[in-house]
Amino acid sequence: MSREIQIKDKEFELFITEEKIRERIHRIAGRMNRELKDKNPLFIAVLNGSFLFAAELLRHLNFLPEISFVKLSSYRGTSSTGEVNDLIGLNEDLRARNVVILEDIIDTGITIDFLIKDVKRHNPSSIKVATLTFKKQALVKPVDPDYIGFEVPNTFLVGFGLDYDQLGRNLNGIYKLKDHRNA
Ligand code: 5GP
Ligand code: MG
Question: 108 in ligand 1 pocket by Cβ < 6 Å?
Answer without folding.
Answer: yes
